[in-house]
Amino acid sequence: MGFVDLHSHVLPGLDDGVKALDESMELTSILAKMGFDTVCATPHQKVGQFLPTRTAIDAAYAQVQAALIARQSTLQLLLGAENFWDELFLERWPKSEQPTYTGAKAFLVEINVQVAPPRIEDTMFQIRLKGLLPTLAHPERYSSFWDRNFARYEALSRTCAMVIDLGALDGAHGKPQCTHARRLVEEGLAHAAATDVHSVADARAAGAGIAWIRKRCGDAAVQRLLDENPRRILNGELPD
Questions:
Q1: How far is CA 29 from CA 10, 17, 36, 62, in A?
Q2: How far apart are CA 150 and CA 16, in angstroms?
Q3: Which of 44, 48, 82, 216 is the most exposed place for a label (fewest CB within 10 A)?
Q4: 202 vs 211: CA distance, rounded Å
Q5: 144 lies in a domain?
Q6: pTM above 0.85, yes or no
Q7: What is the pLDDT of residues 86-141, one digit of tens each?
C-alpha cells in the first residue's frame, strides 16, 4: 500500500489552503506521485479566522471527489478537519461534536503555538475515554513543550497520536521547529508524519522531509510513519 496523509488543505476556497479546483487537482496529483494513495482533507475549524460550515466543506469535498473520478485517479480522498483548541472546540468535545476523520474514530486538533491549554494531558485522556483518538497536529511548533518541558511530549504521546509536519523536518517552518520535529522522530515519540500541504511549495518541503526520514531512520521508519501508523490512527488505535 501507499502512504496516508493525515493533514492537508486540498479542498478549495475554505481556508488558507488551495483557492480553486485546478490547484486542488495539481496538488493531489503531486501527492499521488509522491506515493500517497490516501489523503485526508482537514480544513481549519478556528473561531474568528477559518470556520467553514459543514455544507461548504461537503460541497468542496464533492467537487474534488468528482474531479478525481473524472480523471480516473485512484487516490482516496477522506474528510476531516483541523480543530483549533478554542471556545468552540471546548463546547464541542464533551458532546463528541468536533469534526472527525472519515470513520469517526479519530480527529485532528491543534493548539496555540505559545501557550498550552491548562491540563491538556487530562483532557486528552478524557477524550480517549469517550472512544475517540485525539491526534495532535504539528507538535513540533508548540514552544511550551520545548527544551526543559520536552517530557510533556512523552506524557502526551500516551494519550494522543502526535503527527509532525514533514516540511518541518527540512526546516521549512524554522530552526527550532526543525530541531524538535527531528528529535520527536529520533526518540520515537512521533506516531506519524503528514504533509500539511497548503500549496505546491509545501509538497516540495514534504518530499524533502520524507527523504530525511529515509536517510536518517531507514525505509522501515518511512513505512511506519506514513503508512502503517496513519492507518491505525484512522482506525482509532494509538500506535505503540
A1: 11, 16, 10, 17
A2: 30
A3: 48
A4: 14
A5: yes
A6: yes
A7: 999 999 999 999 999 999 999 999 999 999 999 999 999 999 999 999 999 999 99
Which among 126, 42, 47, 128 has a CA at the least distance from the CA of 84? 47
- Give pLDDT tens digits for 59-98: 999 999 999 999 999 999 999 999 999 999 999 999 999 9
Domain-located, residue 19: yes
Helices (H), the chain: 21-34, 54-70, 87-92, 120-129, 151-157, 166-169, 175-186, 200-217, 219-223, 229-234
Contacts of 88 (CB under 8 A, 6+ apart): 45, 47, 51
* 137 occurs within a structural domain: yes
State the CATH number of the domain containing residue 124: 3.20.20.140
Range of the structural domain that residue 118 is part of: 3-234
Measured distance CA(54)–CA(38) in Å, rounded: 21
Q: How many domains does the chain have?
A: 1
Name the DSSP class of 72.
Answer: T
**240 found inside a domain:** no
Q: What is the DSSP string of 119-138?
A: THHHHHHHHHHTT-EEEEE-
